[in-house]
Design a protein that fits this description.
By secondary structure, this protein is mainly alpha-helical. Helix content is 36%, strand content 8%.
């Protein structure tokens, strides 16, 4: 087993006062494998500046300047992140989305209404709804 120790002991990271994190599932669940470098740079920027709800509202101009991207590259990186479900965007607001799968929608029963507990139990027992 590899023994790990800091290479530069006086520069060990600590959790800062401001809020920010990168979920390890980005790598473990292979989300990162669906990103090109531009989309990964934008994602890193957004998770760094987002609040606890994942929200930030940096302007396109500001993001382009900070990431040295032209507007069309930013547009494509944003579209790529949206397509794989890592962010949502409604100008000027970005939301970094949870890596948890989206909740399953509530299904309607045959009559078009919501399932009641008794209907669910009947259906599970093979009695239909």
């Amino acid at each position: 087993m590899v023994s790990k120790r800091p290479i530069v002991a006086d520069r060990v990271r600590t959790v800062p006062r401001q809020f920010s994190w990168i979920d390890h599932r980005l790598v473990r669940d292979r989300h990162i494998e669906h990103l090109n470098h531009r989309a990964a740079a934008l994602y890193l920027f957004l998770v760094t500046v987002a609040d606890a709800a994942g929200l930030s509202y940096y302007s396109d101009r500001s993001i382009c300047r900070r990431l040295t991207m032209d507007p069309s590259t930013l547009h494509q990186a944003r579209a790529d992140l949206t397509a794989v479900g890592l962010i949502a965007w409604q100008s000027p607001l970005y939301q970094v989305l949870s890596l948890d799968p989206p909740p399953r929608p509530v299904q309607a029963n045959a009559a078009g209404g919501l399932w009641r507990l008794g209907d669910i139990l009947k259906a599970a027992a093979g009695g239909g709804a």
